[in-house]
Design goal:
Elements lengths: L3 H8 L5 H11 L3 H6 L2 H11 L8 E3 L8 E5 L5 E5 L6 E3 L1 H18 L4 H21 L5 E2 L5 H10 L4 H8 E4 L2 E4 L6 E2 L3 H19 L4 E9 L10 E8 L4 E9 L19 H12 L8 E5 L2 E7 L5 E2 L9 H22 L8 H9 L5 H29 L1
Antiparallel strand pairs: 1-4, 2-3, 2-14, 3-5, 6-7, 8-9, 9-10, 10-11, 11-13, 12-13
Helix pairs in contact: 5-6, 5-13, 6-11, 6-12
Length: 397
């Protein structure tokens, strides 16, 4: 049987080698970061060990965990808190989404030093809230006005951030020109040939949306963000609206096939490309999509394009350390949002309709205890795999 390191290396074989090494470095930080970077391991194991029946077909984000929820400004300029990563989005049994999220809670609980009994109670509360929302058949949203507790304070804080401040923090002036600040943490330099090609292609692409001379791309760099996606082609570019002189940062992220693809037996729609899949599911699942969400092609590689926002952030769960009430409040909102996303996508391109999802929610006797038990056991498995991964890397060094 392949070792944990061998399985991880096989999955990452087609990614940028030097970025993969950085990914492995991040994955050694703690079991939760390891969990974020090994979505493929989770589903590879799930299909072998799953012991409950679920005949639903739902559009899931595929990699639902505590840090794949975050804040952003929507097209209507309102700040929302919602699911925010759809790279792995796919049509699959709805319980797969739920058990992935529950496992993330179990792993995070270990990092936050919560006792197992408390972790189990938190997971059960999450399932109950999720089921209640799904059974209602009504999709809800969370924004600053409707948020509660720590989440409300979080959204209030991010709402005060500005685009100008974000650009100021991520750029420097050199020879009178504004360029990206290469800090070798968030932004890494591109080789001259690659940078020149990207600037040229993106400038041409923007002309199709704004016309000649409306937008100018000044600089580009490689962007480091997240964990699971490190190693795919991902760029940040500095864009200027020439009429106003306003600058913005743009995130351009390569879309690869969902890591769930080898394990899902449900027939999938025929997408034009992977970026179309990601963008389509995100548009359906979120109450309001982030401002300026598009997809583009560069040299036969397809990317998701969006503005980097000063309002875009993830909830820092370390603030909840030891405080079960705070954690439960935040997870309550996450459960509502996860169920709401499934309802918004129901009945689309082969997915179960709302009545079928409601029926699943009403039949907890057949799956609830099994899903909760699996998440608890796999949470411990993640810690074991994390330790084995670190040991193998150390021995290989």
């Amino acid at each position: 049987m392949s070792t944990i390191l061998a399985r991880i290396q096989k999955f990452n074989a087609n990614r940028i080698p030097q970025m993969v090494q950085l990914k492995y470095k991040f994955m050694q930080e703690d079991p939760f970061r390891f969990f974020r970077g090994t979505c493929h391991l989770f589903y590879e194991d799930l299909v072998e060990k799953i012991n409950w029946k679920d005949e639903t077909k739902a559009w899931i984000c595929g990699d639902l965990h505590l840090e794949n929820f975050g804040s952003y400004k929507g097209d209507n300029r309102v700040v929302y808190f919602d699911l925010n990563d759809f790279d792995e989005a796919i049509l699959a049994p709805i319980s797969w989404e739920l058990v992935r999220m529950l496992t993330s809670i179990q792993v995070a609980a270990k990092v936050l030093e919560l006792k197992q009994k408390k972790a189990n109670l938190i997971c059960e509360k999450f399932v109950d809230t999720y089921v209640e929302q799904l059974e209602s058949g009504k999709a809800l949203s969370v924004e600053r006005k409707t948020a509660q507790g720590l989440l409300k304070d979080f959204l209030k804080t991010v709402a005060n951030r500005s685009d100008k401040q974000l650009v100021k923090e991520r750029t420097i002036r050199m020879n009178g020109k504004l360029i990206l600040h290469i800090d070798n943490q968030k932004f890494l330099p591109l080789k001259d040939k690659e940078k020149k090609n990207i600037l040229k292609k993106i400038n041409l692409w923007y002309k199709t949306y704004y016309g000649k001379g409306e937008v100018k791309i000044h600089d580009a760099a490689y962007r480091i963000a997240g964990t699971g996606s490190i190693g795919v082609k991902r760029y940040v570019v500095l864009k200027e609206f020439t009429k106003t002189g306003n600058f913005h940062l743009i995130d351009i992220k390569e879309s690869l096939p969902s890591s769930l693809s080898p394990y899902v037996k449900i027939e999938q729609p025929k997408w034009k490309n992977e970026a179309e899949r990601v963008r389509t599911v995100q548009n359906r699942a979120e109450y309001v999509t982030p401002a300026w969400l598009h997809n583009m092609e560069i040299d036969n590689v397809f990317f998701i394009v969006k503005e980097l926002q000063p309002l875009e952030d993830k909830m820092d769960l370390s603030l909840c350390k030891g405080n079960t009430k705070k954690i439960t409040q935040i997870l309550n909102s996450m459960a509502i949002l996860a169920a709401s996303a499934a309802l918004r996508c129901s009945g689309r391109q082969g997915s179960s309709n709302a009545d079928e999802l409601i029926a699943f929610a009403r039949n907890t006797r057949s799956w609830k205890s099994k899903v909760l038990n699996y998440a608890e056991k796999y949470g411990s498995q993640v810690v074991e795999d994390y330790n084995a991964f670190k040991k193998e890397l150390k021995n290989k060094a």
